[in-house]
Amino acid sequence: MAHCDIKLDNIMFADLDDMNVKLIDFGLAVETHELVTGTKMQVTQFRAPEVILGLPLDESVDMWALGMVLACVYCGYYLFPSSTEYETIRAMVQIFGLPEADVLDRANYKDAFFTRDNGDWRLCTPEEYTEITGNRVRCMNSVIDFDAMTDQHRNMYEMHDDDDHKAFIDLLKRILEVNPQRRITPSQALEHDFITMKHLTGKSKAAYAAGCEGVMGKMLLSEAQVNPSASSSSSLSESSNQSLISSMSESEIVDVREVLSAGSADEQSSHSSLNSSDSCEKPVFQENLEKLENLQTDKDKAKMSRKGNRKTEALELIEGHYLVGNQGIYKVQEFLGEGGFGKVAKCTKLGSPEMYAIKIIANVQEGKEEFESMKLIQVLDPDENHLMKMHECFSFQNVICLVYEILEESLEDFLIKNECKATPLTYVRAIAQ
To answer: CB within 8 A of 267, min separation 6: which ones?
Structure first.
């Protein structure tokens, strides 16, 4: 599977003290064999060259995006400060040189960015790019090379190791290989010296190595201490919901009963079908949305929905409102963010001290796509594999609600809070792993 949207705000801290991060938002994820050459994905600063140039796509697009994330965390700013694809390609050429001739020969969209002079490829000028595409180049910021980036980082931190910086830059170059066929894979990256710290041996490196191992050790300990029961919750029947209501205040009872009565008979039917006794032992994910009415299943229609057909009647929510799920009733405490998909609400589940992040998606098909992506990765332990944990998915009053674990802050917020300063290399390693 390819995530297709790895960026700073889609990586969040599960535990900021331990630098333990998780990948979130699988709304654009797709099985690798379904990736189509020429499909536009990823925001510009994290967009892989094969996406821009129209080369065959696979999961290596995510490795490129990860490399851009690590570079940004390492130096505190985008490696490619670009707003157009031309600026991204120009920055790549400045840092890595021209792509190999055979790469450009295979690229479908090369003519917008490159031209031949006497048989040799060269980068188009901004004027040539504008003439070909009609798009103006709005900024021509210079980019910093890896040596200058390393010097800046070393000057910021008293405790550093030259070999560790070299190991990181070597890994970064392998991740940011312009030719996707030669780009390092995730399994290969995990064996790289920067991750394994094999290069940090000897008495002269003992103090620095101990600090690095301390950070990594805390992260691993944090993963081991995760409460396994937090991810499992038995489905609540209608009688269970009624028992919750009986324990609430009079004003809350009125609010919840209004919510319960507001749903159509069809919606109530869909809730009861999801809680049927013959499915109570199945995983939360298993076929939850298959039985919902008016749910498109055609994959071509699913792909078309990503092109902007978002018009739908959304549930109007405010703080204090309730969402009735398969496993309980959730009360909206505050809103954590919103976007074209809808909103993310921080919620409590009545009768439980746990907090949850509920992604409320207005477009039913888009909600189903994200749900199906989560089903594909449910075989992976979310803590060991640094994936956001999903608890349940339900339909409520014409919207899809995906219930996730609550996390702390995104990498983007972390960098902004730290005034976009370079992150210590020991922390970069924890995030990379």
So the answer is: 395, 396, 397
Cβ neighbors of 143 (< 8 A, separation 6 or more) are: 79, 80, 81, 91, 94, 95
CA-to-CA dists, residue 78 to 149, 161, 416, angstroms = 12, 24, 13
293 in any annotated domain: yes
DSSP strands (E only) in 214-341? 322-324, 329-339
Q: Which amino acid is at 88?
A: T
291: Cα separation from own chain's centroid: 28
Range(s) of the domain holding residue 278 = 230-405
Tokens of 104: 């450009």
Question: Whole-model pTM?
Answer: 0.81
418 CB-near residues (< 8 Å, 6+ apart): 76
Identify whether 5 is a catalytic site residue. yes
The verdict on 426 and 362 lying in the same domain is no
Return the CATH number at 193: 1.10.510.10
Q: Are residues 191 and 327 in the same domain?
A: no
Is the same domain home to 198 and 335? Answer: no
CA torsion angle 186 190 195 200 (round to 10): -140
| Known binding-site positions for ATP | 359
Q: Determine the Cα–Cα distance for residues 271 and 241; give it in Å rounded to an integer.
A: 12
Same domain, 92 and 237: no
On whether the CB atoms of residues 352 and 243 are closer than 8 A, the answer is no
| Sheet arrangement for strand 322-324 | 322-324, 329-339, 342-349, 355-361, 399-405, 390-396
Q: Please give the helix or strand (H or E) that residue 395 lies within, else none.
A: strand 390-396
Per-residue confidence of the chain (433 residues) as pLDDT tens digits?
999 999 999 999 999 888 899 999 999 999 999 999 999 999 999 999 999 999 999 999 999 999 999 999 999 989 887 788 999 999 999 999 999 999 999 999 999 999 999 889 999 999 999 999 998 887 666 788 888 888 888 888 766 788 999 999 999 999 999 999 999 999 999 999 999 999 888 767 778 888 888 777 655 545 544 444 444 433 344 445 555 555 555 555 445 555 555 544 444 444 433 333 333 333 333 334 443 333 333 334 334 344 444 444 556 888 999 999 999 999 999 999 888 788 999 999 999 999 999 999 999 999 999 999 999 998 999 999 999 999 999 998 889 999 999 999 999 999 999 999 999 999 999 999 8
Cβ atoms of residues 399 and 279 within 8 Å:
no
Please enumerate, by residue number, every residue annotated as part of a binding site: 359
How far is 409 from 132, CA to CA, in rounded Å?
42
